[in-house]
Every structure is written in structure tokens, then in C-alpha cells.
Amino acid sequence: MKKTGIGWAERNAFAALGLFFFVFLETEYLFDGRMALYMDSAGVVRAQNVILGSSALGFFCYSRLRKLLKKKEWKAGRGFLTGGGMAGGLCFLLLWLKKSIVLMLLAGIVLFFLLGLIGSLVHGEAARELSVRKRLAGYVGISYGSGILLQFLVHNLLARPVLEAAAVLAGGAVLTGFAGGLLRDRRLGTVLPMAENEKSLERECGKALDVSGMKQATFLFLLLVVFMTCIFATLDNAVTLAHAAGTADIGQWPRLLLVASAVAAGFLFDLWERKLMHIIMYCVTLLSTICVLVIEAGGSFVMGLLVFYLAAGFFSVYFTAGFMELFWERKDIYLWAGMGRAVNNLCAIFITFFSVWMLESGNAIGMIVTALLLFVLISMTMYGFLMEKNKAALRSEGIGREKGEQVAEQLAFSRAALYRHISKLNEKTNTKGRVGLLQFYHQWEMER
């Protein structure tokens, strides 16, 4: 039987996820620095959010591209990754060497679109391998924290910008190699065609879960991430404005708080089988809203920076782990597993122009009213999401109890003995619930 610890495929996905965070965030940091040489701080923030929107488009497009390739995916995948990696490296060099704002922005758009494509692949494979684990949020938190820590070390130990850029190019090459490994492992580990395997597993999961009942909860969670993004994007824009203006360097030691908050978020979210994850995030959002109010009322920017780093780590782990946990309720794994990052980047575009205008205009009253209104919307959406999720869980429990009674009757077991046996299986396989056991069984079958 497969080992219950984290295996080769899980380690591959875990490392690729952390490496993606490093390459994505460090490239974004270098892009901001390059654009700051030729435009004001507001222009840098707007340009940053254009490339973030491009990355969101990449996240959405990979799923469609994968469907178009179908059976040719494995043959075309290597060529796609090689060509995409070379194109990404060329765009990075253009961004680094050229002095034309138009060329730099176009290079950034293409580069982040490619990063979105590879990010969708990495998130999808990480969801496949890690979503059934009891420590899902912990894995996400450690991978995100590792990416931030690597970015901090590269930024501070490699004193010359050229060396820092070379480190990003090397990281991108290694990430491309990891992505190729994930595709190869998926190909070699598949007995049936992948589409048939997915449909088979979804049918079996549908028998154990009230899948249709989770549609409303998934939609409300998506809406919740949108509203939360508005709060955190505003804080991010305030910090980026200060960085672009030269009054603060977001690559220095306070960034280590982001590492600590991501790891702490992963640990706290996993408590009690992630039943407290949403409540904890709600409290962090409340703290962030208060921080926005304090900054607009003339409070310390340093305090805002500290709260931003502490809260941003929690939020990144929250929407990443949240969508990975919910992805079984949707058909397209590669689309929904990275939906949190895509939605976060996409919403940043729409909120940026408004938030930057508010921040630069000094309209404190308007910003305070907007922040309070957003928090009210977050509160209402969080309540609706938790209600729908609990209803779906109760319906699923009823479905599972009914099927459990049938299995117990066929095996001549009591229901209590059957449930104790299932609980022990979950413990030994380090999985959570019936869906986790189903995926564990399929992976074991494929590896066997």
C-alpha cells in the first residue's frame, strides 16, 4: 500500500507551488522597480495591475487550452512548456533591457500571461495531490512562505540588480522543469485516459457528496474573495505607492512578517479540520479594515505596513487553500484550483483605479465609508456562505448515512463499527472524509 506520508508526486507539486510563488512575486517586484524609473507612483500601480489582469487571463486560458489539446496534451505539453519558457525569458530580458514604457508594458503583459498559464497547471496538480490531506492549508502556507523567504533572500543577498534578475530567470527555468515533471508524472501515472479517470472519480465523489448543494456555496465563496480582495488590494496599493515613491522598500525585513503570517495561517486554518478557517479569516479582515480606517485618519504608515504583511499572508493562504478544498465540487480542476489567485489578480484591476484615486486625492471620508461598506458586504456574504456550506454538509451527511447503512447491512456490521473502521482508514491514509479515501484509492490504483 502507498505510504501515508507525503510522497514523490506530493513533494513535486508542493515544491512547484512554492517556486511559482517566488518567480511570480519577484518578477512583479522587479517590474514595479523598472516602471518606477519612467513613471510616477500612481502609474506604477496602474501598470502593475494591468499585468496582474494578464496573469488572471492566463489562469483562465490554461483550462481551455488543455481541453483543446485533449489526447495530444502530453506530446504538446513539452513543446508548449519549452516554447513558453523561452518566450517568457525573452519578455523578461526585454523588460530588463529596454527603456521604452510601451515595450516594457507589452513584455510584462505577455510574461505574466505565461506565468498565469503555468500557475494554473501548478495549482491544479497541487490540488490533486494535496487537497485530501488534513494539512492542506499547512502545505499551502509553507509553500507560500517559502516563496516569499526565497524572494527576500535573493533581494537582500544578491546586492546587484543583474544578479537578482539572473536568479529570477534561473527560478523560471527550474519552475518550467518542475511543471514538465508534473505533466510527465500525470501521464505515467494514468491507467485510463485522463478525461475518463476524472469523470469516473467525479461520479464516485458525487455519490458521497451533495455536489449540487455546493454550487451556491462555491458562488458565495467566490463573491467573498472578490469583496475581500477590494480591502487587501487597497492596502497593497497604499504600500506600492510608497514603494514606487521611494519612501519605503517592500523588499526589506518587514516582508519576513509575510512569511511568518503565511505559515501561521496554514497552521491555524487546519485546526479542527478547517472548521475555523473562515471565522479566522473574517477576524483578520476586520483587522485590515480597521487598519485602512486608521491610515486614512492620519495614522502611522509603518503600522499599516505591518498589518498589511500580517493580513496578506493569511489572505493568500485562505483563497488558495479554500478553492483547492472546494475544487471537487466543480468539474474543471485546473480552472477552479487556481481561481483564488486569478480572481484576486483580476479584481485588483477594477479596484486599483478607484483606490489609487481615493488615496491620492486625500478623500479620507470617502475611503472610510467605502471600507465600511465593503466590510458589511463581506459580513453578509460570509454568513450566507457558511449557511449554504453547512446545509450542503448536512445533506451530504444524510446521503453518506444512507449509503453507510446499506454497506453495513451487506457486510453484517453495525453502523458504529463501520464508521469506526472508516475513521481509522482516514487516520492511516492521512485523508479527510470519503472523497479523500476515493482519491487515495485512485492514486494507489494508478501507481500500482
Could you characterize what this model shows?
This protein has 448 residues and is mainly alpha-helical. Helix content is 83%, strand content 0%. The chain is built from 16 helices and no strands. The chain has helices spanning 8-35, 41-69, 73-97, 101-130, 136-157, 161-188, 194-208, 215-245, 256-269, 277-296, 301-326, 333-336, 339-361, 364-411, 415-429, 433-447. α2 (41-69) runs antiparallel to α13 (339-361) and α10 runs antiparallel to α11. The chain is globular, with a radius of gyration of 22 Å. The model is unreliable at 187-209 (pLDDT under 50).
The amount of helix comes to over 70%
Distance between the termini: 9 Å
Determine the structural class based on helices, strands and strand pairing. Answer: mainly alpha
**Count of distinct strands:** 0
pLDDT < 50 runs, ≥5 residues? 187-209
Element pattern in H and E: HHHHHHHHHHHHHHHH
Mean pLDDT: 79
Count the helices. How many?
16
Biggest sheet details: none
User: Rounded to an integer, what's the Rg over CA atoms?
Assistant: 22 Å
Structure summarized in a few sentences:
This protein is mainly alpha-helical. The chain has 16 helices and no strands. Residues 187-209 have low confidence and may be disordered.
